[in-house]
Every structure is written in C-alpha cells, then in structure tokens.
C-alpha cells in the first residue's frame, strides 16, 4: 500500500470517528473549555460510562487528551488541528 493510500485510509477513519453525533458534540463542547466526564455527561444528558466510552474512542484517534487532577480527569482537544478541522467543517455546512 502506498503512503497516499494509507493516508487516505487514516483520513477516512478520522471522518468516520467524527461522523458520530455524540462524539462530535463532545468535541464541540471541548472547543470552549476542558471538561471532566461528569460535566460532559450532565451537559449532554447521558451516563458517565457512555461518555467515557466515546472519550476513549476520541483519545485513541488522538483527537482529545486529558490531564489528571487527583481522581478527576479533565479532557481537552489534543491540538489546534482538531479545532481547525471542526471549525472548517462547521463553516462548510453553514455556507450557502
């Protein structure tokens, strides 16, 4: 497989991950502030285990990262590329 083919497969996987409305909503929340699982769950009206599962998928895709403060993990976007990707996507779908 060529490097270009491999890159296209990785990009398709990234879009697949971001294609899930729950994960996209989590990313949208993290655009503004870092948040803990409990706060994300409350904001979205979902259980903590469901949110933790989605955060694990986002973390494995290197879209989010976390820091520990005692027993609490605070999640944030991994880097500016993630923010740019989401903001550009929003601009695209809002463009008439």
Automatic annotation (TrEMBL):
Superkingdom of origin organism: Bacteria
SUPFAM superfamilies: Winged helix' DNA-binding domain
Keywords for this protein: DNA-binding, Transcription, Transcription regulation
Record bears the keyword Disulfide bond: no
Family matches, as CDD domains: HTH_ARSR (cd00090)
HTH arsR-type domain segment(s): 3-96
A Pfam family of this chain: HTH_5
InterPro entries with a match to the protein in the record: ArsR-like_HTH, HTH_ArsR_DNA-bd_dom, Metal_resp_trans_reg, WH-like_DNA-bd_sf, WH_DNA-bd_sf
Protein name as it appears in the record: Metalloregulator ArsR/SmtB family transcription factor
């Amino acid at each position: 497989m060529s490097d270009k083919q491999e890159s296209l497969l990785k990009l398709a996987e990234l879009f697949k991950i971001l294609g899930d409305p729950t994960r996209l909503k989590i990313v949208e929340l993290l655009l503004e502030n870092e948040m803990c699982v409990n706060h994300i769950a409350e904001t979205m009206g979902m259980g903590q285990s469901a949110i933790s599962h989605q955060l694990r998928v986002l973390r494995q895709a290197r879209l989010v990262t976390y820091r520990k403060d005692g027993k609490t993990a605070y999640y944030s976007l991994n880097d500016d590329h993630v923010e740019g990707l989401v903001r550009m996507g929003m601009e695209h779908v809002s463009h008439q």
